[in-house]
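Suppose you are handed a protein chain with no further information: no name, no annotation, nothing but its sequence. What can you learn? This example shows the usual starting point.
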Amino acid sequence: MNKRNCPVCETNKAEVIMTFTPELLCAVNPTYKVEELRKAIIGKDDLVTYSECDVCGMVYCETLWDNDTLRIVYDKTIDHEKSLEKVLLLNKRIAITRTWNNLLRLFTLLGKKKLNDIKLLDYGCGWGDFLDVANGYGVNVYGYDEDKRKIDFAKKRGHKIVDSIEELKSLSPVDVFVMNSVLEHVQDVDYILKLVKTLLKPNGLLIFSVNDYRSKYIKKNVKKVSSNFPALSKNFNPLEHVNIYDYKSVMTTLEKYNFEFISTRLSLDFTNIPGIRNSIFFLKCTNKLEKAFSNILTGKEIGITVYAKNNATN
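A reasonable first move is to predict its three-dimensional structure. Written in structure tokens, the prediction is:
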């Protein structure tokens, strides 16, 4: 089977640290059907492993998924009705709303007074739950996804969904490019981020969220899986999450593709209090504190949402 290089530093030196069975994956993921999963990956054990890069420490699935296996996994293994039900979860809706509210506040901090025909693209829009929140007067919202079930659902609810990469490119330039929980799923990160650079206006905003796994938490999961116990989180899952990011690898990726880091959602949330919410100075100070504390080992699953600016001119 074909293998890929590290998505962060692009070297090909890595060692396998976790190997999963269908039973281990299904034990923590109620949307999976174990019998269908066994059929999908029979004879393809390399697809359900994580490796750690010897150079930068990034954890990722080295083996490239073939299109036929991907189709079977997504079409037959995942229970899509249960996936859709997650859209109704209040904590998920709150998180999405917070991401949108922070974008509006960021516009204010960057000097914008009102929404003047903002063009926003949600890449990997899924069922359209972020589109629900962002859609409104002054904002032209578009979605793109490769799952036909999800885009059909979003279209029926009135959202503008782009059907192909060529149509996607015709939207260029866009003011805001959103990727909620997308990069951990992407085998060719380089292609996606170069596409973002092509579509975003100079100084346009990139917003993306990924799970943030620190080394202590990864070691806990390595120990569990090595002992044939399920991982602590359903997100440790090389079927869908082929890239396991942490704070350092996120910041390295931004720098690599010439995006200027502005803030994380955590820092924006922390400074959203009277007296300092309109100060870019306090936001920058909080970002520095977060960076300093990112070196502290965290023994639990956390997430990171990043707001960044496209530095390159198109």
